[in-house]
Amino acid sequence: AKSEGRSTYRFFEPQMDQRLQARRALELDLRGALEHGEFELHFQPLVNLTSRKIICFEALVRWAHPERGLVPPSEFIPVAEEIGLIVPIGEWILRQACSEAMHWPEDISVAVNLSSIQFQRSNVVRTVSQTLLETGLPANRLELEITETVLLQESDETLTSLHALRALGVRLSMDDFGTGYSSLNYIRRFPFDKIKIDQCFVQDVATNKDSLTIVHTIVALGRSLEMTTTAEGVETQEQLTMLRAAGCAEAQGSLFGMPTPASGVAALLQKPNPV
Ligand code: C2E
Ligand code: CA
Ligand code: CA
Ligand code: CA
């Protein structure tokens, strides 16, 4: 009778309220997910195009929802950001990624994505330095990936935090480069070590002259600003050939391996060079 009452209730609810309810249900589940241990990190290799070796793994969070199955980050990260939950979740991700990297060879780094909310609503510098101390990971094995949204405020505080992070010895990567509207301004103002060329430029680099020109320009820009360039979302040998010719230093994508659970990292490191 109870379930009947509920479905009748739903039937008469306007659509807007239904969406709101679904959203509230997701929020509620998200609030419990951390303590229920439902998050998991997957790791995707980054390959140096000169040595052809894996040099880093990017940590990408997954949510194993008990009923919905794997929920992609694109669905729950924005919600977690909106309700501030990204701060404790982000702290868990960082600690988990650094602890995991302690099991890897010493010349392999780990890259962790930071959300803009972690800059705005928490002391991200203290979190990073404490996590390095607690896990024992040397700072030079940690890369922090930051998108333009972090920099949108362009506040002095953001700049101070970025300099403080760098002073700890971690590296900073500008993620999704070229997709925002003021990438060039940011790359000039903020202390990045690496530019990650967004996959939208990489996707048709072998078939579209304009994309190829953009990639060449970004690599040249990186070189003159003394930043490394990584190509994201490399899927084919043709793309790789073009990226190599453009002078791109590193690459990541399905051609080298999609994100895998931590248990798959050792196997990837033992495989002969993927390219
Ligand atoms: P991102 O940081 O740009 O991550 C790259 C995304 O591209 C990942 O999607 C990855 O699985 C996907 N990818 C990698 N290689 C290929 C390829 O060859 N082809 C294609 N089509 N896709 C490829 P994912 O894991 O679904 O993550 C999506 C976004 O969610 C990330 O974009 C990042 O912005 C965010 N995200 C993921 N994990 C975290 C996290 O731990 N913290 C935060 N704050 N954000 C995260
Ligand atoms: Ca990233
Ligand atoms: Ca990216
Ligand atoms: Ca992206």
Mean pLDDT metric: 91
Q: Can you list the strand order of the major beta sheet?
A: 1-2-4-5-6-7-8-9
Point out poorly predicted stretches: 1-8
Strand content: 15-25%
User: What is the H/E order?
Assistant: HHEEEHHEHHEHHEHEHHEHEEH
Shape: globular
Write up this protein:
It comes from Chelatococcus albus. This is EAL domain-containing protein. Residues 23-273 form the EAL domain. Mean pLDDT is 91; it is low at 1-8. Strand 6, helix 9 (183-189) and strand 7 form a beta-alpha-beta unit. By secondary structure, the protein is α/β, with parallel strands linked by helices. The protein has 13 helices and ten strands. It binds ligand C2E and calcium ion (3 copies). One calcium ion binds at residues 58, 113, 145, 175. The site of ligand C2E has 19 residues, from strand 2, helix 3 and strand 6.
Give a brief description.
This protein is of the alpha/beta class and 275 residues long. It is built from 13 helices and ten strands. The chain is 49% helix and 20% strand.
